[in-house]
Amino acid sequence: KKNVRLVDGNSRCAGRVEVHHKGQWGTVCENFWDMTDAAVVCRELDCGEPVDALGGAHFGQGSGPIWMGGVLCTGSESTLKNCGSSGGSIHGCTHNLDVSVICS
Protein backbone atom coordinates (compact mmCIF):
# COMPACT_ATOMS: atom_id res chain seq x y z
CA LYS A 1 0.00 0.00 0.00
CA LYS A 2 1.35 3.39 -0.99
CA ASN A 3 1.99 6.04 1.65
CA VAL A 4 1.60 8.86 -0.85
CA ARG A 5 -1.21 9.87 -3.18
CA LEU A 6 -2.17 12.69 -5.54
CA VAL A 7 -5.67 14.10 -5.18
CA ASP A 8 -7.95 16.66 -6.86
CA GLY A 9 -5.89 16.74 -10.06
CA ASN A 10 -7.10 15.95 -13.55
CA SER A 11 -5.41 12.54 -13.67
CA ARG A 12 -3.98 9.83 -11.41
CA CYS A 13 -0.54 11.37 -11.90
CA ALA A 14 -1.33 14.98 -11.02
CA GLY A 15 -2.68 16.58 -7.89
CA ARG A 16 -2.10 17.69 -4.34
CA VAL A 17 0.47 15.55 -2.58
CA GLU A 18 -0.89 13.73 0.46
CA VAL A 19 1.08 11.41 2.72
CA HIS A 20 -0.24 8.72 5.06
CA HIS A 21 1.16 8.89 8.58
CA LYS A 22 -0.17 7.67 11.93
CA GLY A 23 -3.29 6.34 10.22
CA GLN A 24 -4.26 9.65 8.64
CA TRP A 25 -3.76 11.37 5.28
CA GLY A 26 -2.23 14.83 5.44
CA THR A 27 -0.41 17.34 3.27
CA VAL A 28 3.08 18.66 2.56
CA CYS A 29 4.15 22.30 2.99
CA GLU A 30 5.80 24.14 0.10
CA ASN A 31 9.03 25.32 1.74
CA PHE A 32 11.99 23.94 -0.28
CA TRP A 33 9.59 21.95 -2.52
CA ASP A 34 11.15 21.51 -5.97
CA MET A 35 11.41 19.24 -8.98
CA THR A 36 13.79 16.88 -7.17
CA ASP A 37 11.13 16.21 -4.54
CA ALA A 38 8.44 15.93 -7.21
CA ALA A 39 10.57 13.35 -9.05
CA VAL A 40 10.50 11.06 -6.01
CA VAL A 41 6.70 11.33 -5.73
CA CYS A 42 6.26 10.58 -9.44
CA ARG A 43 8.58 7.57 -9.18
CA GLU A 44 6.85 6.24 -6.07
CA LEU A 45 3.50 6.35 -7.90
CA ASP A 46 4.85 4.86 -11.16
CA CYS A 47 3.99 8.13 -12.89
CA GLY A 48 7.12 8.79 -14.91
CA GLU A 49 9.03 12.06 -14.73
CA PRO A 50 7.93 15.29 -13.04
CA VAL A 51 6.55 18.04 -15.25
CA ASP A 52 5.92 20.59 -12.49
CA ALA A 53 6.38 21.05 -8.74
CA LEU A 54 3.80 23.48 -7.40
CA GLY A 55 3.12 25.26 -4.13
CA GLY A 56 0.32 27.58 -3.11
CA ALA A 57 -2.36 24.86 -2.98
CA HIS A 58 -2.50 24.74 -6.80
CA PHE A 59 -5.03 21.88 -6.74
CA GLY A 60 -6.86 23.20 -3.69
CA GLN A 61 -6.25 23.08 0.03
CA GLY A 62 -6.13 19.79 1.86
CA SER A 63 -7.48 19.11 5.31
CA GLY A 64 -6.12 17.19 8.25
CA PRO A 65 -2.52 17.40 9.43
CA ILE A 66 0.38 18.98 7.58
CA TRP A 67 2.77 16.06 7.90
CA MET A 68 5.85 17.27 6.03
CA GLY A 69 7.63 20.45 5.07
CA GLY A 70 11.13 21.55 4.18
CA VAL A 71 11.46 18.35 2.15
CA LEU A 72 15.00 17.83 0.90
CA CYS A 73 15.10 14.83 -1.42
CA THR A 74 18.33 14.04 -3.24
CA GLY A 75 16.31 12.53 -6.08
CA SER A 76 17.50 8.96 -5.57
CA GLU A 77 14.98 8.00 -2.88
CA SER A 78 12.37 5.37 -3.68
CA THR A 79 9.75 7.00 -1.46
CA LEU A 80 8.99 10.51 -0.24
CA LYS A 81 9.14 9.27 3.37
CA ASN A 82 12.82 8.43 2.85
CA CYS A 83 13.66 12.05 2.05
CA GLY A 84 15.27 14.28 4.64
CA SER A 85 13.85 17.59 5.76
CA SER A 86 15.08 20.86 7.16
CA GLY A 87 14.70 21.76 10.82
CA GLY A 88 11.51 23.58 11.80
CA SER A 89 10.07 22.01 8.72
CA ILE A 90 6.38 22.87 9.16
CA HIS A 91 6.77 26.05 11.20
CA GLY A 92 4.35 28.66 9.84
CA CYS A 93 2.78 26.26 7.37
CA THR A 94 -0.92 26.44 6.54
CA HIS A 95 -3.03 24.58 3.98
CA ASN A 96 -2.77 27.46 1.51
CA LEU A 97 0.87 26.36 1.14
CA ASP A 98 0.06 22.73 0.27
CA VAL A 99 2.21 21.29 -2.53
CA SER A 100 1.17 19.56 -5.72
CA VAL A 101 2.95 17.74 -8.51
CA ILE A 102 2.23 17.04 -12.14
CA CYS A 103 3.93 13.95 -13.51
CA SER A 104 4.29 12.81 -17.08
From TrEMBL:
InterPro entries: SRCR, SRCR-like_dom_sf. Disulfide bonds join C29-C93, C42-C103, C73-C83. Keywords: Disulfide bond, Glycoprotein, Repeat, Signal. Pfam families: SRCR. It comes from the Eukaryota. Gene3D superfamilies: SRCR-like domain. SUPFAM superfamilies: SRCR-like. Residues 4-104 form the SRCR domain. PANTHER family: DELETED IN MALIGNANT BRAIN TUMORS 1 PROTEIN-RELATED, SRCR DOMAIN-CONTAINING PROTEIN. This is SRCR domain-containing protein. The lineage of its organism: Eukaryota, Metazoa, Chordata, Craniata, Vertebrata.
